[in-house]
Design goal:
globular, about 45% helix, alpha/beta, about 260 residues, single chain
């Protein structure tokens, strides 16, 4: 069965490698990037490597929530149903600390963007017989501070990155309960994979980017994961495991959703 798959942040790194793996299987793959020229080159490259003509893409800056909404509308206009959404795009270091609305850049890209995009694409996902949402969390997870999420205070890159990744994970658990027919899996694709983001942030890596791409590919299509909605996959361990304790605190999850809706309104 042909699947239609959208991967954010897929003009390089594990997003691009995942797109190639899925395109090799003959699936219809939509890639995404901030730069139109780079996106076009990526689409051409994937078509050439895989001999799959069903590759297309979308341009959007995910730090700009207006562009995230425009991206969702563009997907709705081009796609009749969506089988898999992989929220892969992420940022650690950024030349700008905040976006145009004063939100921390890590929260904007790593959490608010996938939250807005996914919720707008739920009607397309519901049309699939086997819909999946794969959200890229991280081994770095720390308790959310309301003032930081709201953009009222600024913290160090690593602190807000870890908060944003826990926020994404907590919302993933919430989404899994709200959408029982959609498989929702948050995943740590692996610590310090050999990607541009990791090189910029730490100047070193532990594992190949392919390690991350392989687990994203498996989570997207493998039958082995079909009964694990609302569970956290830790690719450092190669298995499902326990996330940060806050992710299992129903009150903290509801507080997060309330704060999120406050920001977005």
């Amino acid at each position: 069965m042909n699947k239609t798959i959208l991967i954010t942040g897929s003009t390089d790194g594990i997003g691009k490698l995942t797109a190639i793996k899925l395109a090799n299987e003959g699936y219809t793959v939509f890639v995404h990037g901030r730069n139109a020229k780079k996106l076009s080159a990526t689409i051409s490259e994937i078509k050439e490597i895989t001999n799959n003509i069903n590759i297309d893409g979308f341009v959007a800056d995910l730090s700009n929530l207006d562009e995230v909404k425009q991206l969702a509308i563009a997907v709705q206009e081009k796609v009749s149903k969506l089988d898999v959404l992989i929220n892969n795009a992420g940022v650690y270091k950024s030349s700008a600390a905040t976006n145009k609305n004063g939100l921390d850049m890590r929260y904007a890209v790593n959490y608010f963007a996938p939250y807005v995009l996914t919720n707008m694409l739920l009607p397309l996902l519901r049309k699939s017989e086997t819909p999946r949402v794969i959200n890229l969390s991280s081994a770095a997870q720390s308790s959310i501070k309301a003032a930081t999420l709201l953009g009222e205070t600024n913290e160090m890159d690593g602190a807000t990155y870890a908060q944003s990744k826990l926020a994404l994970l907590m919302w993933s658990f919430y989404l899994a309960t709200k959408e029982p027919n959609i498989l929702v899996i948050p995943v740590n694709p692996g610590s310090l994979l050999n990607t541009n983001m990791v090189k910029e942030a730490f100047g070193k890596s532990w594992s190949s980017a392919d390690k991350g791409a392989t687990i994203l590919y498996n989570l997207a299509i493998s039958e082995n994961h079909k009964n694990n909605s609302g569970k956290y996959f830790d690719n450092d361990k190669g298995s499902y495991g326990n996330a940060h304790p806050d992710a299992y605190d129903v009150n903290k999850i509801h507080q997060l959703i309330e704060l999120t809706e406050k920001v977005l309104s």
